[in-house]
Amino acid sequence: MAKGQFPVDRLQQIQTPFYYYDTELLRQTLRCINAEAQKHEGFVVHYAVKANANPRILRIIREAGFGADCVSGGEIEASVKAGFPAAKIVYAGVGKADWEINLGLDNDIFCFNVESIPELEVINDLAGQKGKVARVAFRLNPNVGAHTHANITTGLAENKFGIAMKDMETVIAEAEKLPNVKFVGLHFHIGSQILDMGDFEALCNRVNELQDQLDRHRIRVEHINVGGGLGIDYGHPNRVPIPDFKAYFDTYARKLKLRPGQTLHFELGRAVVAQCGSLITRTLYIKEGTQKKFAIVDAGFTDLIRPALYQAYHKIENITSEEPIEAYDVVGPICESTDVFAKQTDINGCRRGDLLAIRSAGAYGEIMASQYNLRRLPQGYMSDEI
Ligand SMILES: *Cc1c(COP(=O)(O)O)cnc(C)c1O
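Above: the input record for the complex with pyridoxal-5'-phosphate. Below: its predicted structure, written as tokens.
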């Protein structure tokens, strides 16, 4: 949705700040993912619910046939409610509480992605109490660095995630001994906002080595799950609204050696939903500083925390002005110096009342909103519903 395509008249009627989702772009993105993934036998795509759990977004993604990747009991509940079949729900996370494990067991989810032996033992106990056998995959830490922001790489030995590769056979042997868990897969996830296919290739090479090692011990693995992490073009939401899913899936098809009958699972979050969402905010005041102009808007980091948390860049457009371009610092109302959406960003001349669209905000936006300063949580609106 380029600048001129926002339905400004309708957006003017809604209380700002709010999230606006272009459902047509979301559907196009889902069609592209399905088309590219289905070219390869055994590829199964899950959506990482943590990127955006808006019920209407979840429903559209479920209708496209995706599975759900959850990292909490709340996400399992939201996925079940949105109609994702339990047989397509996977549950990951370093710190699963007993009630969350029980919820997964009660729903007979596809798989628990287990991150330690103590967790495996708890799942075995809880499953035993219910007379069930839980399907488990082990999340291995492949010690592969992703060339992305330090706070969002997860696959290095120093990160808290996963089980060290050298312990792989020990944990599998442990699972074989326990009556109420069944070892079915290996899970990996190396980070987020990854644009260099070389990072995914490095993961493939590591998975191949580990599989060779398991072959030597005649250990069979039903599925491999390579997580998510594909990035998007924050600089060019209009020119590149859909990520290069072809390059992504082709990389895995070329590099990862699946064994006969094995399925390869993906857990894409950001790449599915980021570009379809914008945070719409109203300009409250233009303040002329000594050296620069500030556009003070009614959204803050409580609505979109990525710039404050990761120094993330989001393109900003003034969708109600055709005035000459000027540079502004676009800042929120929260009493924190980090409450800045962009510094010296070029937008059309801005006045009180103008609507700004903070683009590429569909992932890790609405879902990370907080009530700090007792602010209201932003609402989400779909383009086909307003
Ligand atoms: C966050 C996460 C994902 C999704 O990551 P994206 O970068 O949004 O694709 C997938 N799998 C796991 C285990 C995660 O923690």
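Notes for the reader.
Residues 197-216 form the longest helix (20 residues).
The radius of gyration is 22 Å.
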